[in-house]
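hiii so um. not sure if this is the right channel but i have a protein structure encoded as tokens and i wanna go backwards to a sequence. like what aa goes where. can anyone help
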């Protein structure tokens, strides 16, 4: 990453926190994932890798656009490990005075249907909240 932050900046603190979530990944994968996350925050959303690269990542990183496609296509990325790390970090933020209290973690299980037959990790998933002719949808 270009000289975008110092050790006291908010970006440095974000990177330190998120690299902990991506702890199982390799160095370059961690950097790419953080760049993508930072672009989502900067652009207030994610349209596509190329859009986020053109409007944000290209200005803050020396990496090439294709390296982000390769990172997201890497089948070795372990999403379950990320989820475990996120829950561990969330629980570590709870003040020790509250440890004996009931703790409820709210998890958003919203599904957004994808259209077409040709997208990565496509599968038919059951959606308990759908109220139409079928409770199954294309999602990943």
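sure thing!! here u go:
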């Amino acid at each position: 990453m270009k000289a975008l932050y110092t050790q006291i900046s908010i970006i440095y603190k974000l990177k330190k926190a998120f690299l902990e979530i991506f702890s199982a990944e390799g160095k370059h994968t961690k950097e790419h994932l953080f760049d993508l996350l930072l672009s989502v925050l900067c652009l207030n959303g994610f349209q596509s890798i190329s859009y986020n690269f053109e409007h944000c990542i290209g200005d803050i990183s020396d990496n090439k656009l294709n390296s982000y496609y390769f990172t997201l296509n890497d089948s070795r990325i372990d999403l379950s490990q990320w989820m475990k790390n996120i829950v561990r970090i969330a629980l570590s933020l709870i003040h020790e005075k509250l440890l004996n209290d009931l703790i409820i973690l709210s998890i958003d299980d919203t599904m957004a249907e994808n259209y077409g037959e040709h997208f990565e990790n496509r599968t038919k998933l059951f959606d308990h909240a759908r109220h139409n002719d079928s409770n199954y949808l294309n999602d990943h």
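oh and The two ends are 30 Å apart (CA to CA).
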